[in-house]
Amino acid sequence: MTAENKYVPFPSKIEKVIKHTKAEYTFRMHYDNALETVRPGQFFEISMPKYGEAPISVSGIGEDTIDFTIRRVGVVTNEVFERYEGQYLLIRGPYGNGFKFEDYDGSELIVVAGGTGVSPVRGVIDHYAHHTDMVDGITAIVGFKSPDDILFRDDLAYWKEHIDLRFTDPWASPGD
Question: Is pTM, for the whole model, over 0.85?
Answer without folding.
Answer: yes
